[in-house]
Amino acid sequence: MRPRTWVLLLAALFALMQLATVEGRDTPDSKNYVSYALSLTGADEREAAAATIDHYCAGRAAMAHRAQLVDVVRFHAPDPAPRVLEECREQEWRQVEARLAAGDTGGRTVPFMPERFMRIFEVRPGYPLVLAPFVALLGVTWGVWTAGVLITCAGGVLAYLVLRTLAAPVPLALTGMALYLVLPCGTTAMRPMTEGLMLALTLAALWGCALVLGGTRPRAGLALVGGALFALFTVKHSQTLFLGACLAAAGVAVAVRRRWRGTPAGRGPVALAAVGCAGVLGTVLVSRLLDYPSVSESVQDLLTDHFARPDRERPWEEFFQLQGNFWMEWARRQLWEPLFLAALAAGALGARRRPAFGVFLAAAACTGILNQAGHPDINIWGDRLITLAWLLPVLGVPLLLEPVLRRAVVPAQGAPVEPVG
User: For residue range 14-32, what is the model confidence (pLDDT) as tens digits?
Assistant: First the structure.
């Protein structure tokens, strides 16, 4: 079969597998994005609240039903779904009604939380804009699911395209796509959150880096990197800051390394560094111009449990103390179950086979570490904040397997071995 057929088959297989869990993927923050998307379709605040609460509580009820079926003590008890659904609706409406009565009716999102907290989501229109047409056409449940499948599959296709641009054989490029779908990248991207788009846009930026470094289509590559950074700003502007800074550092590192070895730095790394710097400066200037929530506000949000408690008097001192505690506990858990660390090591070894691109890949993966460092909360859903670091094994492991595949291609009757793909 043609490569595109294999790509479509992988995407179709992934979509069929996701039918096993249509409801119950939401996190508490998902309510904010869904209500934002509903407001973009023309729904008023109460209509958006009703549809969002029904969807969120139906997911909670579905999870309670599935959990009860395998509870060794209560599996024969009555189905808890109706009770959970009713209690969830009552609780959510009580909070929303109180804030609507207090006049908290500004913005695109339904006031599920205090206004200061909701402001964080008001400045992230990217994901709701993508979600809105699906919700309008298919309803909330199937619209959210369909959008999740398409966003996740788009990330897998981008992983394939990056590897093909790096001249990886087709089987290994398909391996990269499969890894993206089955590793935590795919699981996290299916949640109704910003991470799916963040992963896809980061891969789009890496594709642009591969085009620039390969010298085949440098202008298109630079435009792709710049466009990805711009789109990422609408999804989560702090991630634009991280990715722009990391790409700039990678470009400088590659240029300096080449100079140190006595070879020309080349225009590619320097141009990519310039685009990364432009992304950082643009993010800082536009976010200040639009009065986006500051870093200090984000720290207060973390330390006050989403502004449910008074602001901390010495937030940065407490934040850095929490950082130390977090990373010690995180390292302990990783050493207990070292799959993630082993995957990172394998990805780093594979990235060395494309030295210049490998630096940019490692830099993009570092944005996951930075994202997690900005939110040192050990209880955040499914380690989703650090998921971007999984891009290193997604693209690095297929490159690590490249020599194995090439040795496996045995020429017929002494014919010379040719690269696959």
Answer: 999 999 999 989 988 999 9
The string of DSSP letters for 114-137 reads -HHHHHHHHT--HHHHHHHHHHHH
How far is CA 173 from each of CA 2, 150, 160, 360, 420, rounded to the nearest angstrom? 13, 19, 5, 18, 11
Number of H-type helices and E-type strands within the chain: 18, 0
CA dihedral for 389, 394, 399, 401, sign (positive or negative):
positive
Nearest to 277 by CA among 269, 289, 287, 288: 269
pTM of the predicted model over 0.90: yes
Residue 354's contacts (CB-CB under 8 Å, 6 or more residues apart) are 166, 399
pLDDT, greater one: 107 or 88 = 88
C-alpha to C-alpha distances, 312 to 297, 315, 326, 365, nearest whole angstrom: 11, 5, 19, 32
> Measured between alpha carbons, how far is 233 from 179 in angstroms, rounded to an integer?
27
- Taking only the tens place, the pLDDT of each residue in 126-160 is 999 999 999 999 999 999 999 999 999 999 999 99
DSSP string, 145-211: HHHHHHHHHHHHHHHHHHHHHTT--HHHHHHHHHHHHHSHHHHHHTSSSSHHHHHHHHHHHHHHHHH
Cβ atoms within 10 A of the Cβ of 187, count?
17
Neighbours of 221 (CB within 10 A): 25
Residue 417 clears pLDDT 50, i.e. is over it? no
Average pLDDT of the chain, as a whole number: 91
The total number of residues written for the chain in this structure = 421
Q: Which residue has the tokens 């780093």?
A: 348
Identify residue 85 by its one-letter amino acid code: L
Write the CB contacts of 340 (distance below 8 Å, at least 6 apart in sequence): 334, 389, 390
How many whole angstroms separate alpha carbon 209 and alpha carbon 124?
25
